[in-house]
Amino acid sequence: MKYARLSKEQLEELNVEFANFLASQQIDKSEWDLLKVNKPEIAEQEIDIFSDLVWEGVLKSAKYIEHFSKNHIFLFQFDDLDIDTIVIKTSLEDVDFLQKEGLQWLSNHLLDESVEIRYGAKKFGNDRNGELFDIIQQGGILSQGELYHQIKSILNK
To answer: Where are the domains of the chain?
Structure first.
């Protein structure tokens, strides 16, 4: 398995897609029910294969990831070859970007000396989707890129 198994809730959300996947493997509902009971290891393998296919599709179409921590915000934009990163950091211990108040503070103090903004870019290695998955595993969330573009437009002024 290259990525992570989808949770039970995620599989339930994708039950139609999973049924289609099983059908493409010539496994109908009754066969699936028998597999789960008689050969659970094969059923697990099918779930793992499906999970990897879902992750591949999600990661292939992803364009932005955001990662928030108490004193840092990492904003990523990427295409097939490159990943651009904006890092926002505050040196003030009482500011918490994980809280609504911390984000409000940031919008009011973005250009203060207590806020450091850095921009960087690099080429992906051999496994673009693996690198993106690693960011997600560390707490990154897929986004539409609104915050990335807002900050980048401020940096370009």
So the answer is: 8-61, 64-155
Separation between Cα atoms, residue 25 and residue 17, nearest integer Å: 13
Cβ neighbours, 10 Å, residue 18: 20
Distance, CA of 18 to CA of 12 (rounded, Å): 9
Q: Could you say which DSSP state residue 28 is in?
A: -
Residues in CB range of 115: below 8 A, 6 or more apart? 88, 89, 90, 106, 109
**Dihedral sign, CA of 93, 96, 97, 100?**
negative
pLDDT one-digit tens code per residue, 12-37: 999 999 999 999 989 998 999 999 99
Instruction: Centre a 10 Å sphere on the Cβ of residue 6 and count the other Cβ atoms it contains.
Output: 19
Q: What is the pTM of this model?
A: 0.85
Find the length of the chain. Answer: 157
Measured in whole angstroms, the distance separating CA 56 from the mean position of its chain's CA atoms is 12
Q: Which residues pair with 65 in a beta bridge?
A: 76, 142
* Region 73-102 average pLDDT: 95
pLDDT for res 154: 83
Q: How far does the chain reach from its first CA to its final CA, in angstroms? A: 45
